[in-house]
Design goal:
Largest sheet: 5 strands, mixed
Helix content: 40-55%
Structural class: alpha+beta
Oligomer: single chain
Length: 681
Amino acid sequence: MSNRLAHSQSLYLRKHADNPIDWWPWCEEALTKARQEDKPIFLSIGYSSCHWCTVMEGEAFSDGAIAALMNENFLPIKVDREERPDIDSIYMQALQMMTGQGGWPLNIWLTPSDRIPFYGGTYFPVEARYGRPAFFDLLHALLAFYRDDKEKLSTVTGRIYSALKKSTLLPTTDTPLTPELLHHGITTCTRILQNSPPGTPSFPMIPYAAVVASGSRLAGQGDAIAAAQHRGNAIALGGICDHVAGGFHRYTVDATWTVPHFEKMLYDNGQILEYLANLWSSGHQDPAYHRAIQGAIAWLAREMTAPAGYFYAAQDADSFRTPDDAEPEEGAFYVWSYADLEQILTAEELTSLAAQFTITPAGNFEGFNVLQRLDGGELSPSVEAALTKLFTVRYGATPEQVTTFPPAADNHAAKTHPWPGRIPAVTDTKMIAAWNSLMISGLARVAAVFEDEQAWLLAIEAMGFLVRSQWLDGQFYRLNYHGVASVPAQAEDYALTIKALLDLYQVRQEEDWKTAAIALQAEFDRALWCEESGGYFNAVGADQDLIIRERSYIDNATPAANGVALANLVRLAVLTEETRYLDRAEQGLLAFSGVLQEMPSACPSLFGALDWWLYGTTVRSRPEQLHDLNRQFWPVALYRLDTELPEEAIALVCKGFTCLPASITPDALNRQLRQCHGIPG
């Protein structure tokens, strides 16, 4: 019999609908019931494409004895972290305080009266192993602790709540906003990109890579150029890139960028598109970059675009090899045995493919081969023909024939649909405003650099959906399920959507995007700006269901909301010539100046905002000149159409609110842009 999660819109929550555990969604009714019955809350947070979340769902959460103990003595609540990142952020921080590490599934126990955590962990097995306790035994121990040791419980929760409250206070310093501070941040982020100890996973870390690529133009940042290009090479050539069908996986489990964790996340792909396009425009024009970009756009259009124009959230790492399999296998949709390759390809094609990719009879992943390119450059016609054959086996038809590919909405659909090729991984079809905006920004940059009309059309269709369907009666919404907007927007949704609107305006100078950015910024300021000390709160509702109110500044797989938001304010200031945006940007940067000084490894996006603050530049010019500028890499320049320049001028460059003499020649324009960007020589 299904539990109440069966009615949830979230794919992650619905995956737990047949558990014997009496799950609740996060809601006031559940929180009230826990208080009234004095039951500790068991809060379990994850997301649909999380491998270990799936494992625990099939093990501990499907165990009858565990469910009976849980249902009788605890109030179990499931949260999709992609729906409520504000809840996830608070309790992940608490878990890290308690254990020194974090991850998903995030399993944490809270007091029912005030929702303060007193114990937590990630994956718990049914039977004790991996140095982790058996989940049944742990529940017994925690129940006894909650009932019988109130004094220690009060001490533990008091200490944790005090630490959480303290974490909301930003360090206070008199750190000035100087070029030296920016150099400090770029150097720190460069070292982070360069540090890849053997045996450690490799993540794209685009927030770090982006500020390093931008900062590589400055004096004394020679290491940054090499680090930025090395990261681009690793992503475009490595096993993290799906060389057969396009798109990028989440990360690789090794330091060599070979074997990925196979889920594909929209937010990674959007950031990578923007990053690779920026590297290309800066002069690093490896054909492998263009191929990887084209592949990702083809994957996006084929598999991740809803009929309404928005983009789906993610694809799972695991898939079924046959409809009769009880459980899906990691990477099954993507990997190739050597016998597969011998059967599918001619001897010449296999030889050509093995000369360009990591292919051996033994394989590099559990007896299978993950394709990793050995070198950049163009692939030979023979290799491209081989990859097309592999695509055809995977999808049941050629790339030209498979322009759209329906999502497998859940495991049942994956196993029962008559797929013409392999069984695909499940796709989470929810629309997330922040993630869509990351992709829109990536597509806008690709459209500008490569004059890619498909990228542009995908971008404006998705943004059109956000403006029409997520912005209702003065309220912007984070999620959309099947045409219905839900969950008020959080700071990352506002910040990344405003950035995407400005990025679209940058490319085609269409006033609607500028107008929408200004209006959405006004709503963002009203809803989440901290009037007392600056910066943006993560979400509304501090007096409702959140025990603290955070202002995110730490970058993770996605850029921190405040870093993006403060950069947006500078861009709006130079675009509109309204100083109120600059005043707010300055207040925010000063609020986080202690973070910039004391924790530079945590906040690359704040350094990106500081870069805009120090060097933000406006270029007014005619359409043909702006078209050329958009194909170049001027990371802190904003372009404005101006058809009334002096007849002999080609552009007018302003740094902040100070304008330089009109540029008469392309060389003069280049010199002025270099000067405003702080480029030596």
